[in-house]
Every structure is written in C-alpha cells, then in structure tokens.
Specification:
The protein is of the alpha+beta class and 204 residues long. It has a single domain, classed as OB fold (Dihydrolipoamide Acetyltransferase, E2P) (Beta Barrel), CATH 2.40.50.90. The protein has five helices and nine strands. The strands form two sheets. The protein has a five-stranded mixed barrel with strand order 1-2-3-6-5. The radius of gyration is 20 Å and the shape is elongated.
C-alpha cells in the first residue's frame, strides 16, 4: 500500500512539473525594452525585434492603433522583459522574418510576473490570432509566479546591433524539436525506472 502511494506521489509531481512548463512557459531571453513599435511589436537592448505571439493589435492605419501602442509602452517601455521564445518557428516568417515570436513577461510585484500578451487581450487592445506555434493563448494567466516562469536570469547586456539577426536554419529548429522530444522521453523512462525499482524493493 505504501509503495503504491509513493509511486502515485512521484508520478503526480513529475507530470505536474511538465504541465506547469507547458502552461506557463519558460524564460529563454531577458533584456530591456528600448522602443515600442506598435501594440504588438517592440525592440530590446540586444538589437532584436520582438513580435508578441498570438495577439493582433491594430495597425497604424486602423482604429485603436495609438491606444494599443501607448498601453504597451506603459507596460514595458524601458523595463526588463522576460521572453519565452517560440520553439517551433522562433522567427515571424509571416512578417519581415526577423522578429522573434515571444510571450513577454514583466515584473508585477515581488512574487509575480505579468503576461504582457494576456494583458493586451484582457484590456481589449488586441485580439487573439492563434497561429501554429508552441503557445495556446486560451491557457494563459495574467499573473505567473516568478519561480514558475524561471525568471532568475540577469538582464542581457545592452549592446549596439551590428546587423539584422539571421533566422535559424531548418536544421537548428529540427535540433530543438529533437531536444524537446528527448526531454519527454527521459521523463517517461524515469517514471518506468522508478516503478521498477519500487516493485523490486517491495518484493524483497
């Protein structure tokens, strides 16, 4: 009985960790916002341009453009942002091809980060545009615990960009996919090994 309870606890903790990683994402890059372009695009101190994933704010010729841009500025301009970069495409090939597709977070208080993408949606400054990528805007929460989002990285140093970032090659993206699959397989193998060890221990 004790063995079964222990196994259940281990399996539950493992899959809870995987679920949190899926829902809340991860911090791939940390930097400071240097310029807000519009309601869903901004530049960071590394010289890269960020396109907020799965949200669509008004263009300059559409109603609401100024309001959306000013709201995004109020959230992130000059602040540190924690970026979860899309693992599937990385760059926005539907646009200029040089914008990193991300979910962005900023400090909200001492224990929480705020999901900038979700804030734009909740305040009505953008609409969901759910492209094929790793994100699911329907699962987003406005606030995310800092320890969950792994927001312990230091901001990236401010550097002067010398050229437009080059999109990752197909082989780079394929390598990332392999690594993601490997992590899942490792987790499954770990559960199996733990189960076998517990069974053998119980039979002795």
């Amino acid at each position: 009985m004790k063995r079964a309870v222990l196994l259940s606890i281990i399996v539950t903790l493992l899959f809870a960790t995987l679920l949190l990683a899926y829902v809340y994402g991860e911090v791939d890059k940390t930097s400071t916002v240097t310029r807000v372009i519009d309601g869903d695009t901004f530049d960071i101190a590394t010289g890269e341009r960020i396109r907020l994933a799965d949200v669509d704010a008004p263009e300059y010729y559409e109603s609401g453009y100024t309001e959306a841009t000013e709201y995004l500025e109020s959230l992130i301009d000059g602040k540190t942002v924690y970026l979860d970069v899309d693992d599937i495409y990385t760059y926005d090939y539907r646009g200029t091809g040089d914008r990193l597709v991300c979910v962005a977070y900023v400090d909200y208080d001492s224990t929480n980060l705020m999901n900038v993408n979700e804030a734009l949606l909740e305040e009505g400054y953008a609409e969901i545009s759910n492209y094929y990528n790793e994100f699911d805007p329907n699962s987003w929460s406005l606030l995310v615990p800092k320890e969950t989002a792994d927001a312990t990285q230091s901001p990236s140093p401010s550097i002067t960009p010398t050229s437009t970032p080059t999109p990752e090659s197909d082989s780079d993206l394929f390598t990332e996919d392999i690594l993601n699959v490997a992590v899942v397989i490792f987790a499954i193998i770990l559960v199996i090994v733990i189960f076998v060890v517990i069974n053998k221990t119980g039979k002795r």
